[in-house]
Design goal:
heterodimer, A: mainly alpha, two-stranded antiparallel ribbon, 25 helices, globular, B: alpha+beta, Beta-Lactamase, four-stranded antiparallel sheet, about 20% strand
Chain lengths: ~475, ~180
């Protein structure tokens, strides 16, 4: 062989090994997802664009593919790890228990509903529709083909409208079940008592398991109580800002956030991360890590930035890393700022841009100015990080929790009805407004132009039953 | 030891070995009957001691939508939640509450054995119904026991419920059946 040829072969060999090695390292190395130089290797190997729900962690292959050759069961474990608790909380109408019953064995042959991946396949953008569903829209047909027998009102309705018309959902029907509608048939558009709940953490903090009441008893602190090292105390007016916060008035001192255990010795951390907030705000942190802002942190990846986002974001916020203090600016921890300005500092989509000037925004401004009662204003957080009643079962305690996992009310948007809309609006109006996509884009400036027929159908069915019953037992005259 | 003693000892040992050791073998029927006895007892206690008593004392009501109504779960729901918890353990056997006149159509008889069994206990509520059936790829021993109306709360609710196909249930009547399924080896 000519020398030139030989050199080419060697060069080809070396390059192949190098490229193969690089891709292999990217695939196998645990830290590859967050690594700046191994990350692109993973990107190259990534099959198909990931869905809107998972794209942020798409390079952390192990989040879903935890066990090599784990198969469908391995994937199922991964789904349940992140989504299991929320589905249980939502009183999933198609839980696993329904399909492990042997009498439903024939249904499983048509559609294996014991596995999430049957209907929610990742990496297949060409067949992915709303909610990450990769099944043809009329999948309900497989088990509910005979529905017109039980519900004559459904005669002639197309099977691809079951879960897209605002009437039914496969998993979460908490705002949609018949008796729920039956009790709210005639509600006005705006309820007379239109108030969102207030927070109550201060009242229950001492009873929350794990709250460090020994070190930080719930009582107001003053400037002399600040326990930061003297050299740092005067830094950038931090102490002054801290004194104005709920932290200072509830007994949380500087060391509460800045003193961290490192290698079994206390160390002073200038910029603590969300791990520190977790000590007292465990549920909020858990919500944050489960939501769109914190899911990268949950998978041990570098934090989310607007640069990585698929939603339109403001260019000036390009590299803002999202952590607790991004929205809750330290040391102020101003929750009012976190409710609107923090959001609009990054988000630039139609709905966000339309917020300022919308009716909800006007209510919020009135509340802030003191011209309207507390709870009457509607901020971004009111809907997207709502205040929900939370039962701490182990502590025998109920409290108002700010749900930091925005997925809880995002898609499908009727998940927002119960924790948010119904506080101020009638059910029919809420359904119609959420079903009107153009109205959602305009941030609810104006009346809804869509109409969900479910309330009428319930009304009609109740009327028919009542008629049938009264025909069966005719009432005696004079009653 | 002399030869005679040795032979005697050997014979005695052989004789003892031949006595059949008490073997623990439970039949499918016995297992189903035992499980049903426990289920029935637990549910009856829940109905009488908790639901009826607290409703009578006007402490709290029982309601189908107990979470939203801040009420007690219905006895049928308590039964079902237990069955779901057992299903999660993936032990193979399952049980459910079915009826020829169900409030929720998903609880109507589906398999031929269920249809046959529910009709049998409707005719004679005192005799359980036993049958073997194959569902999917597994053979099951299926036992169906009459589920009687043991409290006025049972018949009052079902008779008034908008989704109930029958409005004339009477006390003591079999309103449906408990179906216990044990996979056969």
């Amino acid at each position: 062989m000519a020398k030139g040829r030989k050199a080419l072969w060697i060069a080809w060999g070396v390059m192949s090994v190098a490229i193969g090695g690089y891709l292999g390292a990217g695939l196998v190395a645990e830290s590859a997802a967050g690594s700046a130089w191994l990350g692109p290797a993973r990107s190259l190997l990534l099959p198909g664009t990931t869905s809107h729900g998972h794209y942020q962690i798409e390079l952390a292959c192990e989040s879903c593919h935890a066990r090599p050759f784990g198969g469908k069961d391995g994937l199922q474990e991964a789904c349940v790890r992140c989504h299991g608790a929320a589905l249980k909380e939502a009183d999933d109408k198609h839980p696993l228990a329904k399909f492990t019953d042997p009498r439903n064995a024939d249904r499983l042959e048509k559609l294996d509903a014991t596995l999430c991946v049957t209907c929610h396949v990742e990496h297949r953008p060409q067949i992915t529709t709303a909610m990450g569903v990769t099944m043809p829209r009329d999948y309900c047909f497989h088990c509910h083909a005979e529905i017109a027998k039980d519900r004559p009102s459904h005669e002639g309705l197309a099977f691809d409208t079951c879960s897209s018309s605002g009437c039914h959902r496969y998993h979460d029907n908490r705002a949609l079940y018949e008796d729920f509608l039956a009790k709210r048939l005639d509600q006005p558009q705006v309820l007379p008592e239109a108030r969102l709940p207030g927070r109550d953490f201060r009242d229950v903090a001492a009873q929350v398991p794990g709250y460090p009441s020994q070190r930080y008893p719930v009582r107001p602190l003053r400037e002399p109580d600040a326990d930061a090292p003297p050299a740092l105390r005067s830094k950038a007016g931090a102490t002054r800002e801290w004194l104005e916060t709920a932290h200072a008035s509830a007994g949380v001192n500087c060391s509460g956030c800045h003193r961290v255990e490192r290698n079994d010795a206390p160390a002073w951390v200038e910029r603590p991360d969300h791990g520190v907030c977790k000590g007292c705000h465990e549920l909020e942190t858990k919500g944050f890590l489960g939501g769109r802002h914190g899911m990268r942190l949950a998978e041990k990846l570098p934090p989310m930035t607007p640069a990585r986002a698929r939603l339109p974001m403001k260019p000036e916020a390009h590299d803002t890393a999202v952590d607790c203090t991004t929205c809750h600016a330290a040391h102020r921890f101003d929750t009012r700022r976190a409710a609107v300005e923090a959001c609009l500092g990054c988000h630039r989509d139609q709905h966000s841009v339309a917020y300022e000037g919308s009716p909800h925004h006007r209510l919020w401004q009135a509340e802030l100015a003191g011209a309207a009662p507390p709870g009457s204003g509607v901020s971004c957080a009111s809907c997207h990080l709502p205040r929900v009643e939370h039962r701490m079962v182990d502590a025998g305690l109920k409290r108002v929790l700010v749900q930091h996992n925005q997925n809880d009310t995002l898609r499908p948007n009727d998940k927002m009805v119960r924790p948010v809309c119904l506080a101020c609006h009638g059910l029919g109006f809420a359904f119609d407004s959420l079903a009107d996509r153009a109205l959602v884009e305009r941030n609810f400036a104006g009346p809804p132009r869509a109409h969900v027929k479910s309330l009428e159908m319930v009304m009609e069915r109740l009327r028919q039953i009542e008629e049938k019953r009264s025909r069966r037992q005719p009432r005696a005259a004079g009653r | 030891m002399t030869t005679k003693t040795a032979i005697a000892a050997l014979a005695a040992a052989a004789g003892i070995a031949c006595v059949p050791v008490a073997q623990a073998q439970v039949t499918y029927k016995e297992m189903a009957d035992a499980m049903h006895a426990v289920m029935e007892a637990d549910r009856t206690v829940y109905t009488r001691v908790i639901v009826n008593r607290l409703q009578e004392e006007k402490v709290i009501k029982a309601s189908e939508h107990w979470k939203d109504d801040k009420a007690l779960a219905l006895p049928a729901q308590m039964f079902r939640y237990g069955a779901e918890m057992v299903a999660e353990k993936k032990m193979g056997f399952s049980y459910s509450l079915l009826s020829l006149w169900p409030v929720n159509k998903q609880n109507a008889a589906k398999t031929p054995a269920e249809k046959e069994g529910l009709e049998a206990i409707a005719r004679d509520a005192s005799k359980p119904f036993y049958k073997e059936e194959t569902l999917g790829k597994t053979r099951y021993f299926t036992a169906i026991y009459a589920d009687r109306a043991i409290s006025p709360a049972c018949i009052n609710c079902h008779n008034a419920h908008k989704d109930s196909p029958r409005t004339d249930f009477k006390m003591g009547e079999a309103m449906g059946g408990v179906v216990v399924r044990i996979p056969m080896k």
